């Protein structure tokens, strides 16, 4: 005799609550908490930050609220969100707004979304039929290799904070960082359902960062959980934010 369906529903509720406590599915609408935890990992007051996937500027605003003198370079491809960013941060000379997507090559790509300015917009055409959502809005956008920007406008400077939220395209972008990753103190990146569409896994990020000399932490409601080793159970496709900290900076600033 099979158990009643409510029994499995109860188990799923317990599973969801346990996962949430570990930060799995916690990563939406938590910007202030994220920035506060980033601050605990910095060796000194930050000077330079990069916000890749700036959307309408919430993360940049939270950084400026905590670090008013911080120089920030923002990348956002959506024309709708560029207008929002310029309205919010356009008069701040310490914020540079770049209207392009960060990818593994310089050129052009199609930005797919469910609506103009969507927070789900991605360079990958997501299949969200199971949510009754059509990803049928398309916009041609410029793309840039971050390694080129770092060695050009940023003049190969050390980066204190680098945040990436580009809906499943993070691994592609990181593949074209060149030496910029080694010059970065703290990286925040998002992982979740969009990685199903881009066919990328937490395992990819774990080995990329640990091989590059970074320690990994998962943001949870209670603080940071150190990720000491890879587990297949970490392949959890609800929004999660991770922090990667560069061990090179622990001995002091590298300017």
Structure write-up:
The protein is α/β, with parallel strands linked by helices. The protein has a domain at 44-106 and 142-251: 3-Layer(aba) Sandwich (Rossmann fold), CATH 3.40.50.150. The chain is 29% helix and 26% strand. The chain has 8 helices and 11 strands. It has an 8-stranded mixed beta sheet, with helices on both faces. A 3-stranded mixed beta sheet has the order 4-6-5. Helix 3 links the parallel strand 1 and strand 2 (71-75). Helix 2 crosses helix 3 (58-66). The longest helix has 17 residues, at 5-21. The model is unreliable at 251-255 (pLDDT under 50).
Amount of beta strand: 25-35%
CATH class of the domain at 44-106 and 142-251: Alpha Beta
| Mean pLDDT, all residues | 92
Count of individual beta strands: 11
Strand neighbour order, sheet with most strands: 3-2-1-7-8-11-9-10
Q: How can the largest sheet be summarized?
A: 8 strands, mixed
The CATH architecture of the domain at 44-106 and 142-251? 3-Layer(aba) Sandwich
Alpha-carbon Rg, integer: 18 Å
Question: Could you spell the SSE succession in H and E letters?
Answer: HHEHEHEEEEHEHEHHEEE
Topology of this protein?
Blueprint: H1 5-21, H2 31-41, E1 48-52, H3 58-66, E2 71-75, H4 79-89, E3 95-98, E4 101-103, E5 107-113, E6 137-145, H5 146-151, E7 159-164, H6 170-174, E8 184-191, H7 194-198, H8 202-211, E9 214-220, E10 223-227, E11 240-246
């Amino acid at each position: 005799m099979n158990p009643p369906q409510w029994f499995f529903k109860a188990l799923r509720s317990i599973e969801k609550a346990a996962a949430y406590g570990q930060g799995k599915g916690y990563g939406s609408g938590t910007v202030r908490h994220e920035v506060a935890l980033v601050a605990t990992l910095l060796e000194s007051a930050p000077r330079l930050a990069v916000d890749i996937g700036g959307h309408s500027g919430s993360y940049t605003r939270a950084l400026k609220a905590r670090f008013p003198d911080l120089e920030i370079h923002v990348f956002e491809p959506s024309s709708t969100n560029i207008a929002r960013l310029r309205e919010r941060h356009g008069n701040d000379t310490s914020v540079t707004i770049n209207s392009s997507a960060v990818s593994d090559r310089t050129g052009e790509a199609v930005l797919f979304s469910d609506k103009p300015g969507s927070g789900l917009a991605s360079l990958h055409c997501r299949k969200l039929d199971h949510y009754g959502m059509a990803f049928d809005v398309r916009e041609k956008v410029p793309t840039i290799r971050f390694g080129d920007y770092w060695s050009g406008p940023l003049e190969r400077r050390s980066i204190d904070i680098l945040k990436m939220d580009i809906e499943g395209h993070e691994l592609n972008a990181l593949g074209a960082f060149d030496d910029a990753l080694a010059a970065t103190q703290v990286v925040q990146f998002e992982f979740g359902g969009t990685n199903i569409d881009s066919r990328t896994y937490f395992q990819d990020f774990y080995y990329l960062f640990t091989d590059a000399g970074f320690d990994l932490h998962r943001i949870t409601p209670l603080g940071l959980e150190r990720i000491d080793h890879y587990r297949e159970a970490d392949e959890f496709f609800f929004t999660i934010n991770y922090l990667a900290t560069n061990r090179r900076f622990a001995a002091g600033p590298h300017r």
